[in-house]
Design goal:
Shape: globular
Order of helices and strands: EEEHEHEH
Strand order of the largest sheet: 3-2-1-4-5
Distance between the termini: 7 Å
CATH architecture: 2-Layer Sandwich
Structural class: alpha/beta
CATH topology: Nucleotidyltransferase, domain 5
Number of strands: 5
Helix content: 10-25%
Number of helices: 3
């Protein structure tokens, strides 16, 4: 995917009060740029985290109400958006109001199958051995 107008998006989430997905980290990767967003919780809730990705409910520096606006502005210039898996594509398409193509349809391997020899260099990732949206988006784009 060496096109300039193609981006891959991945995200990590926690479950909210009604078992809904609450995006905590979202990354967009392309040939020209990479941008990672870390969102605050949308409402007060007891802090809980994921043993899989190391994120916690109280993590984040961007207000959750900025999720739609910030992400839509970041991907505006891209003609084609990709994510891995039907569930993520459906969620992101609803968030962005446009098609997000499934990398499974082009036989891309799961980001969980990659040898994570790359370390995330983002200072707020205390758990570099865990999966994160930033590493996955870069692996999937490459």
């Amino acid at each position: 995917m060496a096109e300039d107008r193609v981006a891959v998006i991945d995200y990590e989430f926690l479950r909210g009060r009604q078992n809904e997905r609450v995006i905590k980290e979202l990354c967009m990767a392309s040939a020209a740029a990479s941008e990672t967003f870390r969102f605050q919780g949308p409402y007060k809730m007891a802090d809980h985290g994921s043993i899989y990705n190391g994120t916690h409910w109280n993590d984040g520096h961007i207000e959750y109400r900025e999720l739609h606006t910030g992400v839509n502005e970041a991907v505006f210039v891209f003609a084609h958006l990709y994510a891995y898996g039907v569930s993520k594509c459906t969620f992101l398409a609803g968030l962005k109001g446009r098609t997000v193509h499934n990398l499974e349809d082009v036989n891309c391997p799961s980001p969980h199958s990659f040898n994570h020899d790359r370390w995330c260099t983002l200072h707020y990732h205390e758990f570099p051995k865990f999966s994160c949206a930033t590493k996955s988006a870069h692996y999937l784009y490459d």
